[in-house]
């Protein structure tokens, strides 16, 4: 089975919500995803399977915003059964390629300081820690690390 990148559309949201629910302590609601779809600065993609007798299935997604030459990654998640095979790295790489084409030079995100899997992914992807937001996550009081990556035409990852 193979996967392919698509722009996020309304019909993807039901499958995204299932991934969201198992991926985040505070999952986004349907309303938040619908608002994301109409936001003029949104830069959102899904990864879908193809090449089988089964219908296309959303297996990963990323929500980001571009303002000027900066992009903020708001959400990234991969379906549980599709984790640990490189989809998140591939998705970030594709996002960076598209962002470079749009003139983005810097990418920012916040991540839980305890999220070791995400930190490993972001480290591999070339992000560096530029700060900390104390008590960022209201439900746990946990700090967020602020990460940044500079983009060039050679910024993509394997």
Kindly describe this structure.
The chain is α+β, with helices and mostly antiparallel strands. It has a single domain, classed as 3-Layer(aba) Sandwich (Aminopeptidase), CATH 3.40.630.30. 28% of the residues lie in helices and 36% in strands. It has helices at 13-23, 30-38, 87-101, 116-124, and strands at 2-7, 45-50, 58-67, 70-78, 106-112, 128-137, 142-150. Strand 6 and strand 7 form a beta hairpin. The longest helix is centred in the middle third of the chain and has 15 residues, at 87-101. It is globular. The mean pLDDT is 93.
Number of strands: 7
Mean pLDDT, to the nearest integer, reads: 93
Strand-pairing-aware structural class: alpha+beta
Low-confidence runs: none
Q: Give the termini distance in whole angstroms.
A: 20 Å
CA radius of gyration? 15 Å
Q: Major beta sheet, specifics?
A: 7 strands, mixed
Molecular shape: globular
Main sheet: strand order: 1-2-3-4-5-7-6
Give the ordered list of helices and strands: EHHEEEHEHEE
Which percent range describes the beta-strand content?
Answer: 35-45%
Summarize this structure as a short list of keywords or feature phrases.
158 residues, alpha+beta, Aminopeptidase, seven-stranded mixed beta sheet
């Amino acid at each position: 089975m193979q996967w392919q990148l698509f722009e996020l559309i309304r019909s993807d949201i039901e499958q995204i919500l299932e991934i969201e629910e198992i991926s985040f302590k505070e999952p986004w609601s349907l309303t938040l995803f619908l608002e994301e779809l109409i936001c003029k600065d949104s830069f959102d993609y899904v990864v879908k399977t193809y090449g089988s007798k089964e219908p296309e299935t959303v297996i990963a997604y990323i929500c980001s915003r571009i303002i000027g030459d900066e992009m903020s990654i708001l959400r990234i998640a991969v379906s549980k059964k599709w984790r640990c095979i490189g989809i998140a790295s591939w998705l970030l790489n594709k996002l960076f390629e598209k962002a470079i084409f749009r003139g983005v030079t810097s990418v920012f995100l916040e991540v839980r300081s305890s999220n070791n899997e995400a930190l490993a992914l972001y480290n591999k992807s070339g992000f560096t820690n530029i700060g900390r937001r104390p008590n960022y996550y209201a439900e746990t009081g946990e700090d967020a690390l602020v990460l940044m990556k500079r983009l060039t035409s050679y910024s993509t990852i394997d």
